[in-house]
Amino acid sequence: MSNQKKDILYGLYNDEEYLLKAVDHANAEGLEITEVFTPFPVHGLDPKLGFAESRLHITGFVYGMLGTLTAFLFMTWVFTRDWPIIFGGKPYFSAPAFIPITFELTVLFAAVGMVVTFYIICGLGPGVTIPTLDDRITDDKFCIAFDVTNAEESLTDKLKGFFSQTGAEEVNTKNI
Amino acid sequence: MSAVVSPIREPLVTGGKTYHQITEDICSPTERTPSAAWVLAFIVAVTGLALFVFGVAWTIWQGIGTWDLNRTIGWSWDITNFVWWVGIGHAGTLISAILLLFRQRWRTGVNRAAEAMTIFAVICAGQFPLIHMGRIWLAFFIFPYPNTRGPLWVNFNSPLLWDVFAISTYFTVSLLFWYTGLVPDFATVRDRAKGIRRKLYNFLSFGWTGSAKHWQRWEALSLVLAGLATPLVLSVHTIVSFDFATSVIPGWHTTIFPPYFVAGAIFSGFAMVQTLMIMTRKILKLEDYITLEHIESMNKVILATGTIVGVAYLTELFIAWYSGYIYEQFAFYNRVLGPYYWSYIGMMSCNVLSPQIFWWKSLRRNVFVTFVMSIFVNIGMWFERFVIIATTLARDYLPSSWSYYVPTWVEIIIFIGSLGLFFTLYLIFVRVAPVVAVAEVKSILKAGGDQYIGPNANKTHHGSKEAAH
Asked: Which UniProt keywords apply (chain A) (predicted)?
């Protein structure tokens, strides 16, 4: 991510239906959408924007396996190598008794790992401030944004035409 | 746009709200000066919290001798309270995780507050094993850290240690799940705020922008966390029940405990959700989001789980008789007709008999009846844990050591105080965070396909609408 400010031309829509239609329209005209902002997850938007399926669940699996192995191998090491103690006449390596903790650590590692990964790849976290285009995007406006830094007049006009055609409520430019 | 009311399906949000109205209705309680009702409730709750702090400080200073536990009854109100609070802490994750996987969209109205309740209930629960240790300053001994005593590890085969892992994992995962859901809503509050409040909520919202890619990942994350939390929530009370079931005490040593404890946990958790939701929707005027539909659905869960618990009680009695094992038979005879018969009556009447009124639809949809019932269920579930713990211990193998246990004032104020701790946290939460998941409620506002076109849509998108049919 560059620290340089960009000129953003954006349009606000009143309903996710208009937004979806507008995205279709933009795709048909070959306009490159820089970013879409919505107040809630709009279903059916991701394929239109060409997003691949999130791979977050794969990281979850990896973290989970890491938790499984950490717990099981650690307990095995403690009870068979480091400090073997007989509990209730059971064998040192009493695998069934290791299951509850193994399960809990699997879940713990997977959940913590995924959440941390999520915030890192999204660039979010405590103290992060990302300038927003409009305060109403987290309320009831659906926003399509185009990066028009150093863009030619003709492209800007074309985009403005696109916004008025697709029924955008407001069209603004902002330098963020 | 405003939602069209479908003639067939009951809307999940009533009142024909627009997206902006939803934001307004849910966020404004955090922006207003607190109402007199809130201030009064907060004073009461903080007084309770003060009692808790005093009771705990007294216990730590004097030692747990102040609880009048004895050689026979080593666990009593403390562990009863622990199990009771953990049980209450099950509903939130159940609502947000299991109902998410089952695509029960009504959960969006209540999941935020229910998850908050879960977290606060687990905080309350965690206090009891800690103070029960007696020497709380050595509480870190429960963690397997490399120490200078060998290192001497904890006993990984002990259900009490499983409990440590289960409760701390449950708390962490619930907290992460809850907070990740809150981040977009904190951003909504941030974008409505000015000055110092804006800075504060910007910090809390982690810089959320509402970018489509972020939403996609957020949904993927929520789904997997729900998938992880579902077996987790079932495992937690299973492991709590192992504290009893893996012992060799008659009355505890039964394989029915895990499912029976989990059903009981869901039962008491939903009852506490009802108690809180009925007050919250009234005071914050959220009747359009937490509707009678929600109350009725949760009452159905209470009826189902209460009946499961009832079947478990009867199964226990039958199996004790059928086993032909006199110690087991005596444990249950003693439970029903022994010195603590009154707690057995309390348990049976509050948990099994009273929820049966929810077979009637008019009673399921009656807010006042539901509120009273939710209190009954919570009392009943407290009795259940007391019955299991105290009555079983009071009559052990050796009649010469039989005993009877009466709580001291210290234990009573710690229990009442833990309610103060719980309500203090909940009341602060209500002031700081949106109590209903704003973004999620917006996504379920439109309940049917015919509602997906706004009022002006016919002019511009008529053709495509026709084609879609």
From this structure: Membrane, Transmembrane, Transmembrane helix
**Dist. CA B38–CA B8, nearest whole Å:** 38
Q: Does B467 fall in a domain?
A: no
A interface mutation test: which of B213, B234, B237, B446 has the most A CBs within 10 A?
A: B213
Q: Domain limits at B385?
A: 19-135+176-449
CB contact under 8 A, B212 and A37: yes
Beta-carbon contacts below 8 Å between A and B: 195
Of A38, A87, A94, the CB nearest to B215: A38
Partners of A15 on chain B (C-beta within 8 Å) are 1, 454
CATH code matching the domain that covers A7-51+133-175, chosen among 3.30.70, 3.40.50, 1.20.58, 3.40.1000: 3.30.70
CA triplet B171, B266, B10: central angle to 5 degrees?
110
Q: Is the peptide bond before B151 cis (omega within 30 degrees of 0)?
A: yes
Average pLDDT of chain B? Answer: 86
Nearest CA in chain B to A136: B191
pLDDT, tens only, B380-389:
999 999 999 9
Q: What is the nearest CA distance from A110 to chain B, expressed in angstroms?
A: 8
The partner residue sitting opposite A41, judged by closest CB among B215, B224, B225, is B215
Q: What is the pTM of this model?
A: 0.90
Residue in B160, B152, B162 with CA at minimum distance from that of residue A85: B152
Residue B119 within any structural domain of the chain: yes
Whether residues A110 and B214 touch (CB distance < 8 A) is answered with no
Cα–Cα nearest to B190, from B176, B210, B175: B210
Using a CB-CB cut-off of 8 Å, the residues of chain B touching A78 are 144, 153, 156
Cross-chain Cβ contact A114/B224 below 8 Å: yes
Asked whether residue B162 is domain-assigned, the answer is no
Domains of chain A: which residue ranges?
7-51+133-175, 56-122
ipTM of this predicted structure: 0.92
A82: chain B residues, CB-CB within 8 Å = 151, 153
Task: Please name which of B243, B238, B279 lies closest in space to residue B259, comparing C-alpha atoms.
Answer: B238
For the cut 80, the answer to whether the pLDDT of residue A134 exceeds it is yes
Q: How confident is the model at residue B469 (pLDDT cuts 50, 70, 90)?
A: very low
**Is B153 within a domain?**
no
What's the N-to-C CA distance of chain A in angstroms? Answer: 13
Alpha-carbon span B293 to B107, nearest angstrom: 11
Provide the strand spans (E) within chain A: 7-13, 35-37, 142-147, 170-175
Total number of domains constituting chain B: 1
CB-count exposure of residue A116 (10 Å: 0-12, 13-18, 19+): middle
Burial (CB count within 10 angstroms: exposed 0-12, middle 13-18, buried 19+), residue B395: buried
> Tokens 């209190």 map to which residue?
B375
Contact between A144 and A19 under an 8 Å Cβ cutoff? The reply is yes
**How many other C-beta atoms can be found within 10 angstroms of the C-beta atom of residue A173?**
13
Reported as a pLDDT band with limits 50, 70 and 90, residue A159 is confident
> What distance in Å separates the CA atoms of residue A112 and residue B102, rounded to the nearest whole number?
24
pLDDT above 90 for A34: no
